[in-house]
Specification:
4 helices, Alpha-D-Glucose-1,6-Bisphosphate, Chain A, domain 4, six-stranded antiparallel beta sheet
């Protein structure tokens, strides 16, 4: 393993460990999707504006990513690394604006949950009220 790759692996482990310990996350997307807790938040804003607001206001963890898929009319935020999945948020249009479909690993501990609520969920709620 190259020194660069070793550093990347250590950085991910340290970042994720600092966020709640090593026992959070689900290995494999299929397992994550089948067991994740689902929550939704609606916004009157178009999905892309809702997603951009979240991207600018949330405290995102290292290795999290936000993709915009114009052809599918959606944006997707995900926090995953090396086959382990932690969080996803899918922003999609609705007839009255948009919705954020939030999926969280079923094995989040209290520390990780508190960090998510403070750093990312609070930004989502704020963006439902004032996406500008």
């Amino acid at each position: 393993m190259s020194a660069r790759r070793k550093f990347a692996v250590l950085a991910v482990a340290a970042s994720l460990g600092a966020c709640g310990g090593a026992r959070v996350g689900i290995e494999g997307y299929e397992n994550f999707a089948a067991s994740a807790r689902l929550e939704t938040l609606a916004s009157a804003a178009p999905y892309a504006d809702f997603a951009r607001c979240f991207e600018h206001r949330a405290r995102l963890l290292p290795f999290s990513q936000l993709y915009y898929f114009g052809a599918q009319n959606e944006a997707v935020y995900k926090l995953q690394g090396y086959g382990w999945w932690f969080e996803t948020i899918r922003f999609a249009p609705t007839p009255t604006g948009s919705v954020a479909e939030i999926r969280l690993a079923a094995n989040f501990d209290a520390k990780w949950e508190a960090g998510f609520r403070k750093d990312r969920y609070a930004a989502l709620v704020d963006c439902t009220r004032n996406p500008a």
